[in-house]
Every structure is written in structure tokens, then in C-alpha cells.
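Slide 14.
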Amino acid sequence: MDDRSALEEESTARDYDVVVVGGGPAGCSTGVFTARYGLDTAIFDRGNSSIRRCAYLENYLGFPAGIDIDTLYELLHDHAEEAGCDLVSDMVVSVERDHEDDGFVVETQEGRTVTCQRVVPAARYDADFLRPLGEEAAMFDTHDHGDGEHEHFDRDYPEEDGTTPIDGLYVAAPAGDAEAQAIMAAGHGAGVGRSIVADVRREQGYPEGLADHWDWLRKEAELTGEWADRDRWREYADGQRPEGHEMSDERWESLREQEIDRRFDTYVDEGTVERRAVRGQRRLLDHLDDDLILDAARDIEAARESAAPEE
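Slide 15: predicted structure.
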């Protein structure tokens, strides 16, 4: 069995590759990046949501007049599901190590038991569900607060990229000042998602120079010069392979060609760009008030009629 087959078999032995706890900007952003890479991802969302305390959001880039929280939440969840995430309306109450396969067991308020390889807390207010991992001394700080001592999750416990001393545990929130603003939380969640994907790629056998994954599309017209040649990509990939790489040449060649295929597939033609642009705008209409759409349509029609030349 080759490395990729072993990884896929290991994945199918669990319910999910990634479980995200929290369905706000940080959690959904993490899920979009992991699911788009092909990792089975679940987002559990039913708890204390910090963003729902916001009356109206006015500084989230892309909404010039701001956006109401309900519509933003619908957009976040729609995007996560479009990427392939399972959205689960349930509260996670504990995360424990699954010592049989070095993964995690996630327990929920409604009695669900879910197994996964990686867990991502993305809920700003509460990380008590992590206490069963047995790292309380490192994860939680004690401080004086009015009437006595209180414990809270140490926001400096995770590294900036979301990784932690516990293999497979990443933190999107609480983490530093990342959740100070919703758009910062979304950006941090994306970074955590990329950290997970990079670690998965290392497990798949990609050397360090190829581990980082760039999730973007480019115009086919830009695929020119030396990088339009597969042999140039082979040369580049082989240059990233370290001496003593623990992989057979046959397996390496298969992995290398798969990566080159993926990179070439990121270039799309103009017709594809246009079709996706129309689909993207139509999907946005799903989240707008029907009456407002009709009002806008009438205004557009009236403007067209007034601009039409007289016969």
C-alpha cells in the first residue's frame, strides 16, 4: 500500500478529517480552506457566539453599507457548505484523545460522538471543552477577577499559525487579538486552515518546499513561458525533494505528477471565468430580500426606459 492509500484508509476510519468548533467567521473560514482541499470537515455551531452580540457590522470588507448579522451568518454557512463542510447545529462539550488511533473523540450536548484526526476550536468565549485533553496547566491561566480567582483559556497557547503542542489540535479562537474584529477572525481562520492543509500535505509525502498550498485560480492566458512546460515543473519539484526522502521513486513521480496536474488545473479560460462570475452573483441574490430585488429591478427598468432613444 502506498502512502496516499494509507492516508485515505486512515481517514475513512474516522468520521471526519477535521472538526471545527464554532461557526462564525474564524470557524467557517478554516472549514472553507480544509474542505476545498478535500478534507472531510464538520463545523459544529451552537454556543456562545460573540458576533451575534454585534448590532450591525460596518467594517467587514466587501459590504460598503455594512451588513446585518443574520445575513452575514447565512453567507458564511452557505459558503462553508458550498465548499463541502457539514454544518451541525449542536454544541461540543468535550474533546478527548482517541488513544487507539491518535485522533480525537468529540462529544456533543445532544449525545453525538464523533471521531476525527484534527480539531479546531473557533469559539471565542468558551474553551472548557478542551479540558479533557489533560493540558489544563498549559492551556488555562488563573487570574484574580473581582470576587476571586478565575480560569480562562490562555490566548497565547497556540502559535500564530494556529498550531499547538498537542498534535492535531489547532486554535482559531480564542487566540491572541485575532478575534478583536470579525474580519481579523476570518483571516486568522483562513491561516489556520492553510496550516492544516500544509501538515496534511507533509503527511502525504510532499517535502517542505511543496507543503504550502495556494488556493486560487488564475487566467489561462497567464500560463506562458517556462512555467507552461511540465518538464520545468518536474525540475522544480525534484529540486525540492530532499536527499534521503523516504519515498520510492515510483511513488514520488506519482505524487509529483499529481501536484503538477493540480497546478495546471488552477488556470481557467475566459468562458469559465464568466460563468463563475454570473453564478457567484446569482448566489448572492439568494441572500437578499426579495422585495428589495424587485424594487431594484423596477428602478433598473425605469432607468433603461428613460435612457432609450425616442422613435
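Speaker note: The chain is about 40% helix and 15% strand.
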